[in-house]
Amino acid sequence: QKEVEQNSGPLSVPEGAIASLNCTYSDRGSQSFFWYRQYSGKSPELIMFIYSNGDKEDGRFTAQLNKASQYVSLLIRDSQPSDSATYLCAVDSQGGSEKLVFGKGTKLTVNP
Amino acid sequence: ETGVTQTPRHLVMGMTNKKSLKCEQHLGHNAMYWYKQSAKKPLELMFVYNFKEQTENNSVPSRFSPECPNSSHLFLHLHTLQPEDSALYLCASSRGQGLNEQYFGPGTRLTVT
Question: Which residues of A touch B (CB under 8 A)?
Answer without folding.
Answer: 4, 32, 34, 36, 42-46, 49, 88, 90, 92, 96-105
